[in-house]
Amino acid sequence: MLELDAEAIYGELARRVREHIAGSSPVLVGVHTGGVWLAERLRADLDIAPEVGILDVSFYRDDYSQGGLSRGVRPSRIPFDINGAHVLLVDDVLNTGRTVRAAMNELFDYGRPARIELAVLVDRGGRELPISTSLVGRTLEVPGDVSVVLSRDDDQRLQLRLERAAGA
Amino acid sequence: MSLTLAIVNGRVIDPASGLDAPCDIAIADGRILALGAPPAGFAPQRVVDARGLVVAPGLVDLCARMREPGAEGALRGEMRAALAGGVTGLACPPDTDPPLDEPGLVRMLRQRSREAAGARLYPLGALTAGLAGQALAEMHTLAQVGCVAFCQTAALPANLGTLLQALRYASTFDLPVWLRPVDASLVGDGVAGDGPLASRLGLPAIPVVAETVALHTIFELQRTAGTRIHICRLSSAEGVALVRAAKREGLPVTADVSVQHLHLVDENIGYYDSNCRLDPPLRSAQDRAAIRAGLADGTLDAVCSDHAPVSQEDKLLPFGEARAGASALETLLPLILAWAQAQAVPLVRALGAVTAAPARILGEDTGMLAPGRKADLVVFDPQASWTVQPEAFHSSGHNSPFAGQTMTGRVRYTLVGGEVRFEAAT
Amino acid sequence: MQVLTRSPQLNSDGGLHHLLSIAELPRPLIERILTTADGFIAVGTREVKSVPLLRGRSVFNLFFENSTRTRTTFEIAAKRLSADVYNLNVAASSTAKGESLLDTIDNLTAMQADIFVVRHAQGGAPYLIARHVAPHVHVVNAGDGRHAHPTQALLDLYTIRHYKGAFEPLSVAIVGDILNSRVARSDIDALRTMGVTDLRAVGPLTLLPAGLETMGVRVCTRLEEGLRDADVVIMLRLQNERMRGALLPSAAEYFRNYGLTPQALRHARPDCIVMHPGPMNRGVEIDSAVADGPHSVILPQVSFGIAVRMAVLSMVASSQQEGAQRA
Hints:
The complex is a heterotrimer. By secondary structure, chain A is of the alpha/beta class. Chain A contains four helices and seven strands. A five-stranded parallel β-sheet of chain A has the order 2-1-3-4-5. A two-stranded antiparallel ribbon of chain A has the order 6-7. In chain A, strand 1 (about 25-30), helix 2 (about 35-45) and strand 2 form a beta-alpha-beta unit. The longest helix of chain A has 16 residues, at about 5-20. In chain B, about 30% of the residues lie in helices and about 25% in strands. Chain B contains 14 helices and 18 strands. In chain B, helix 2 links the parallel strand 7 and strand 8 (about 120-125). The mean pLDDT of chain B is about 95. In chain C, helix 1 (about 25-45) packs across helix 13, helix 2 packs across helix 13 and helix 6 crosses helix 7 (about 180-195). Helices cover about 40% and strands about 15% of the residues of chain C. The radius of gyration of chain C is 20 Å and the shape is globular. The model of chain C has no long low-confidence stretch (mean pLDDT about 90).
């Protein structure tokens, strides 16, 4: 059973992001829920001024016809002007790339950003769309029927675990 | 067809005499020759083995719509439905197109009925010309050509003066008047019985006073005119109580109820099932209980099918737009048996409500089994179980509120004037 | 008895397949609709006010009863979901001209309709349609006769939740023609499901249906009594036809006794909200000073209505029924 030290992986991600964005002032947009936690940590650790934007991509997913709307739809909220912004999109796990595609489509409905970059805690491969980023905490190879799940304990410490999908 | 026939080994039930016993029946020349041992030398051309079956007078239905005049050729199909339902005599109301207010129409209808060789037809003539409630119909002439009574089919005439004159006129010739106890102005735009169901479904309601006010009016006018009146289709407990009081008072009144109201309540409308759009409307469980009690104590004399075939186009509509009525001839008998079973009514009494009692109201020589009487009989299997499939009805109307339900009781033979006019496929 | 015992609006997973009446919806499902609507409120504040959820789907507004307001909000809601919207103003008489209601539905289904939004003068018409349509087609009731107006009730719930939070402790007064109002029926059903116990119906006897007490509603024929300490006041539209139908003598007399004036409103809580499904008859059921005053949330109700209808449309559109197969 692979043990993942989420805090350490986050540390690696934060280091890469700090190095990469030196000299620029991006705004952070987290993909609900895990991406929002990470974005809030990055904001604090990298001293980024503007509030973190929140995206719930439920209305942009491509699997709506199969599964309908997920149970916990939350409102998206972008508290700044997207037009001309340098956006750092943050998500917890990068897998097929579909969530990022949905997130980008949603962002464009808020306005026209100058640039979108992507930061993820874990890249587990399995891409089905041409989406990639170097701002990764850790790259993992995980079997198809296993999910990588980010959670937060009561002390706000990040936890990562692997879950085998039941009869997926 | 002057066949000699014997029905043997059956359980013979004759409500008029109270007979309920195993018995053979000999039939000749269209009449019952003997109950029990036939006369010496009786050699029947046909023997019907009624082992395990009940032999009863053919059902007499106080209201079954044949849709003629109006729908060309409809009568044949509805008569087949009647025979399949064990009905050997039926009264058809004058709400035809055009209404039965002309002797020529009545003659034609009787001719068609004879040709159809179905059940006996007892035409009911219109009380007013065109059923419009304004001018009187030629009741005497209509009676001469065969009308057994005169009625208004939807509601009391708005003009009570006209109604009073009609009653007086009918009294002159001792003609019975049949009336629907409905005050149209109190019905308003109502489509369902007033109660929690109508409120919940947001359906315009028909208050009970639409029936009780009409009953008060009828009885009050009757006290002046002295006419013999038959009340058609009660729906409410209050209505039953008013009829009980009128009978106690000694008014010449009889009353019937539809077999649907004996079983169904407003809740059966469910999610707007337009097969339960009926006139009068279905009411509450308390009203149904009062109807059952009214039959038990004789306040209500008879049960009828109130047969009304309605096309799919006229039923597959929002509830308030659908045409009222149920196709009921083919479920009448099993529903009577179900009532007898559920309410512990002896079969000889229950069957009386659809044989001897309606025959008495019609004043016709039918509805009973006795030597010398016309051989109008039904032979049925009281145990046979079957599922109601309206598409398979003989009637053109597939509008049954009992679709898909299991019924017990199936007609095997229906005889009219000693002739086997219906025989079930085995 | 061929009684439909299962509510035809839920699919086998308990999800919303049609929206016909709020009466049969379980509380968790209603809460889910409201939460989904929260998401859509946010969409309405962006520059691009639409999401691609219903792209490629066709929504047909079938209004057998005229209503520009409701039809327009459904149209906006459907368009904000990127659906193709078609408006058919089928006046009731055209059905009488020959084409039956179900024939109309069949023709439209053949034109790839996915969702029918139906308003009809007859209670139960949406049920008839829902029983008849193919498994992949959904029906949303935009008001049927006097029976129900479920999306109005949902947006009323959303409004109350927005301003007041929890439902259980609230006192809610519904004022006006409750007898003939599908909004009132749906509001009563909705508020009871959400746990409101102090619910009052206010109006003259001719406008109050029988059996309200059995629905858990207190009947008040005096406005002051009905408004006393109310947190929420829902005013119903008084239709002119009621006057002609001999239910009321005149609009003026109605206003004197049941019109919501600032003086009458003083009997309610100081922080009460005043709602109205619209359109308002100023000076008949409501005084302009109240309609435009600080307690009124009538205009916000409209924007909440769009979000709620987006939630309903998106939820039914994703429901699967056995045998469903989009052509």
